[in-house]
């Protein structure tokens, strides 16, 4: 648990993702510090789930920090999901094209990550199959010559 002046970050490592639950209040006084702490956990290069469902207050500054973090993850090719809660919903109604991948629960976010990983594996398996050398049929079988 990390104390960030009015907010607490609880970090849970799962096999598919790092989950960061934020409780308390995120405002101008601690938004950057919280973003800094989240960046520390993002260094492991694993998908990230930000659980804000227990947050009491989220300011515009906190929302802006979320947008920046999401952009950084997207740019790095990492998946990031946000679990919205009552504190975040008013901002989501005001900022329509926010680009945040919002899920309804941690379980749903984990399922989305699992689906992406599964699709990627299937895609890569298909590519590997296409690159396998084709077995050549002996010329005698192709021409019908049984010699």
TrEMBL record:
Ranges for domain STAS: 19-120
Cross-referenced Pfam families: STAS
InterPro entries: STAS_dom (IPR002645), STAS_dom_sf (IPR036513)
CDD domains: STAS_anti-anti-sigma_factors
Domain of life, per lineage: Bacteria
Protein name: Sulfate transporter
Species this chain originates from: Mycobacterium ostraviense
């Amino acid at each position: 648990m990390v104390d960030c002046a009015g907010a607490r970050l609880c970090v849970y490592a799962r096999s598919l993702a790092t989950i960061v639950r934020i409780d308390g209040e995120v405002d101008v006084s601690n938004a950057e510090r919280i973003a800094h702490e989240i960046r520390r956990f993002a260094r492991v290069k694993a998908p990230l789930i930000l659980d804000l469902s227990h947050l009491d207050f989220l300011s515009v500054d906190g929302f802006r920090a979320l947008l920046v973090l999401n952009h950084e993850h997207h740019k790095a090719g990492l998946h990031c999901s946000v679990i919205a809660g009552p504190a975040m919903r008013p901002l989501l109604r005001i900022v329509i094209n926010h680009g945040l991948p919002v899920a309804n629960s941690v379980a749903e976010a984990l399922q989305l990550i699992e689906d992406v990983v599964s699709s990627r594996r299937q895609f890569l398996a298909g590519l590997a199959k296409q690159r396998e050398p084709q077995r050549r049929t002996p010329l005698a079988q192709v021409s019908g010559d049984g010699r």
